[in-house]
C-alpha cells in the first residue's frame, strides 16, 4: 500500500509534466501567432503572452566612425535627419541649431541637429522608422577607443527589406543632393604644375545675365540634359564631358556666363593659364588632378595658342622655328586634353573655351566632339537692355525712353558691360536710363563722352622701327649680315608695297593682320 507521501509526489510529477506540456504548446502557439497574426490584436496577444508590437522591431546602428575614418552613411544620416527636424511632426523638444562657416545669415542657412538621447520619427512607404541618437566618448581619426556618436534606426521586422533596399539608398541620395545644393563652388588656378584654390564669390546667375532669352534657355536645357545622361554616355562608350565655345566681342558677358554655369551646376572652375604650363606632360598631370563635377576654363584661347605649333620637336615639327623651341604646350597636346584618351580621366566635366576672335582659332578645335556647342555673346539687344534695367533699378516695361532706346540699339553697337556701367552710375532709375540713352545717342552721332567728335585714324605719326635679329640658322646660306624684321607701319612709311598683306575692316577702326620682312 502506497504511503500518502508517495501519492503526493506522484501528483506533483503529473502536474509538472502537464504544466511543461502546456508551456511547450503555448510557446509553439505564440511563435505561430507572432508570425501570422496582425500587430493590432492586443486581446489575443495578451492571452497568448505575445510581446507588444514595439518589441518585434529590428534596429540598425550607424556609428560615426568606420575605423580611423568618418562613416559616410552616418554623415548622410545626420544631414537627412536635419531635414526631419525642420518638418516632421514628432520633433524632440530640444534640438541644436548652427550656422555653417561662410554661410549667410538667412533662415534657410540654419541647420538643425539632434541632441544625444533624443529621437525623431520618419515615415517611408508606409513604414514607421525611428531615428535615435546616442553619444559615446570622443574619437580621433587614427586612434582607437570610443566610437563617437551613433544613430540607432529602429523599424518593424516586416519592413526590413524596405529599409535596407530602398530607404537607406533614398537617404544617401537625398543627402548627396543637399550637399550639391549647399556646396559653394571654388576657383582653381595653375601655378608651377599645381592647382591653387580660392572661393568663387561671383554671384552671376542666368537670371541676372544679360543675354538673349532663347539662347539662355538653350544653354540651360543643354546643361540639364548633360547632367541627366550618365547612362547614355556609359551605353555609348563616350566620356561624360561637354565642350562649349563662348565667343563674342569684349564686354559681352563671356566670363559672367562661365560664372552662371558654375553657379547653376555647383561645379568648381579650373582656370587654366596655358602660359604657365611648362610641357604637354604637365598639362596632362593638371588634367588628372581635377575633381569630377568641375569646369575646365581656358580664356582667350586664341591668344594662348597664337604661336603654338601643331606638334612639338619630337613629334615632327620644324626644330629650327623659334616658336617651336620656345613654345611650352603644343596644339596637339591641347587637342589630346580635349578629346584624347586623357580626356577620359574623369567624368561629369565641362570644358569651356572663350575667345574674342573665333576666326583665329584652328579649325581642329572647333569640330563637333571637341566644342559641342558654340555660344555667341553679342552686343546688347533691347531684350537684354530691359533685363539690365529691371535687375539694377526695377524698371518695368513701360518706360518712356524705351522706344527710343530700342530704335538706337538697332543702329549702334554697345556691349552689355557699357550699358551696365551707365546704369550703375546713379541710384536714380530715370537718370540711369537717361544716361544709357545718351550713350547710344552719342555713339550714333559719332561723339565721344567728352563732347568731341570721334575721328578714325589708321596711325598717328611715324613710328620708329624696332628690328629683331633672325637666328643665323634661318638664313640658309646668307652672309653673316643680320636679317631684320620690320612691322607693317615701318614698311608703309618707307613706301614699300606688300603683295601679301591682308586687312579686315571693322566699324570704328581698322584691324590689320600679317607680318612683313625686309633685308638691309
Automatic annotation (TrEMBL):
The keyword DNA repair does not apply. The keyword Disulfide bond does not apply. It catalyses: ATP + H2O = ADP + phosphate + H(+). Its cofactor is Mg(2+). One of its GO terms (molecular function) is ATP hydrolysis activity. It holds the Pfam family AAA_assoc. Residues 472-483 have a biased composition (Low complexity). Belongs to the AAA ATPase family. BCS1 subfamily. PANTHER family: BCS1 AAA-TYPE ATPASE. This is AAA+ ATPase domain-containing protein. It comes from Eragrostis curvula (weeping love grass).
